[in-house]
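thought: user wants a sequence for this fold. calling inverse folding tool.
action: design(structure=
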């Protein structure tokens, strides 16, 4: 019984140290280099950057030329239009296009996709907004749609299945040839949006569908028409729907292989976004657009890349650069060599609690061997029986510095 208690105490101490000791170390250690914020100037058609500096954010142009705030803003008139208009420096034309308030509003678009959005539980319960209500503002619907082994409409007030409405939706799904259960469902549940796009979803066979509710009736459409070969490649693990004022971006599809496809325009034309080595589990994606260009950026895994597209989504310019990840800094290499493992309850790729485990490098495990040999030698020097110290020695062999500290704490006790 005493042996079992000692083993349990050692294991508990090792696990606590494996969590709190690395966490305390990183509170004191230097963090990784922050990647730059990338812009594209329509004035000189070059990339501009905001990088962290000794005195805060610093602005740079081509060849890392340090720019003043005023020069930086004049090179990005579509980003700082309000300031330039107040200063009287706003150009009347850019790229041969007249700069007007309507053109600025019509061309503006913005979209972000983080790993935490993908690595999250799915509720399978969605508010299905009325797309043709005739009202200026969208109203939260009374019924919610549940997509699982079948389609069901639930009345929010009574929390019961609306059998009549569910039957109409089942007929629509059957007529469209939808195969349950759905693989991916994209929907924006926010009521404060300019219009209701509806729901984009792929069925069990990977076919892409669009569902909307018009005047209370379901409209489910298989997209691709006669050119199904183009759409067979859009088997997605995640679909992002975020209604924009100009109704340009209908949805963003993330493929199993990390490909990104934007559905653009009234016909939802599939446009492959030309990013290299995009990893949806660890990469932040952003799309920013103005009246002339669309700038897509992806940052993660120690690399940031940017691609400039025209309004037809054709590539115009590229930029890529590497930055140090936390593990690649001096502090990161020390941590990997000192701690044989560490674990935490949170992770950058998810907004939910979990058990995230990270191993040290070969130096850390070599250190375990040295600490074990030192502990055996110390036990022999004290003329203690090694067989009585087997639990402590095993903890040192597996957990290294954590095992040493746990053994010392248990010895003092």
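)
observation: tool returned 413 residues.
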């Amino acid at each position: 019984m005493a042996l079992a208690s000692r083993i349990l105490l050692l294991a508990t101490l090792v696990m606590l140290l494996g969590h709190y000791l690395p966490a305390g170390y990183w509170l004191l250690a230097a963090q990784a280099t922050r990647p730059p914020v990338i812009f594209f100037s329509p004035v000189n058609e070059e990339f501009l950057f905001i990088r962290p500096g000794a005195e805060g954010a610093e602005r740079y142009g081509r060849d890392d030329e340090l720019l003043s705030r005023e020069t930086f803003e004049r090179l990005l008139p579509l980003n700082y239009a309000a300031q330039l208009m107040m200063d009287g420096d706003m150009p009347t034309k850019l790229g041969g296009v007249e700069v007007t308030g309507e053109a600025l509003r019509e061309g503006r678009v913005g979209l972000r996709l983080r790993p935490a959005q993908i690595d999250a539980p799915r509720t399978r319960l969605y508010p299905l907004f009325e797309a043709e209500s005739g009202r200026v503002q969208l109203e939260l619907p009374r019924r919610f749609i549940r997509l699982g082994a079948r389609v069901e409409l639930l009345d929010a007030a009574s929390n019961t299945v609306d059998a009549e409405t569910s039957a109409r939706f089942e007929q629509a799904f059957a007529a469209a040839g939808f195969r349950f259960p759905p693989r991916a469902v994209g929907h924006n549940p926010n009521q404060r949006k300019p219009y209701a796009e509806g729901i984009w979803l792929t069925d069990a066979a990977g076919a892409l569908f669009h569902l909307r509710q018009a005047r209370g009736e379901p409209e489910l459409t298989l997209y691709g028409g006669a050119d199904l070969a183009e759409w067979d490649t859009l088997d997605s693990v995640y679909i992002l729907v975020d209604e924009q004022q100009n109704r340009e971006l209908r949805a963003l599809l993330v493929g199993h292989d990390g490909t990104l496809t934007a559905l653009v325009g009234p016909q939802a034309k599939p446009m492959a976004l030309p990013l290299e080595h995009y990893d949806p589990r660890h990469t932040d994606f952003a799309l920013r657009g103005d009246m002339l260009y669309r700038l897509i950026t992806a940052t993660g895994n120690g690399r940031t890349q940017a691609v400039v597209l025209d309004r037809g989504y054709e590539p115009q310019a590229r930029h890529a650069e590497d930055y140090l990840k936390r593990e690649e800094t001096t502090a990161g290499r020390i941590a990997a060599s000192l701690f044989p493992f560490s674990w935490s309850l949170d992770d950058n790729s998810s907004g939910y609690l979990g058990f995230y485990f990270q191993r040290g490098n070969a130096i850390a495990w070599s250190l375990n061997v040295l600490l074990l040999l030192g502990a055996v030698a110390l036990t022999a020097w004290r003329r203690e029986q090694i067989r009585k110290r087997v639990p402590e020695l095993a903890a040192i062999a597996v957990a290294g510095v954590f095992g040493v500290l746990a053994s010392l704490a248990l010895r003092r006790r």
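thought: summarizing for user.
answer: Here is the designed sequence. The first strand starts at residue 37 and ends at 40.
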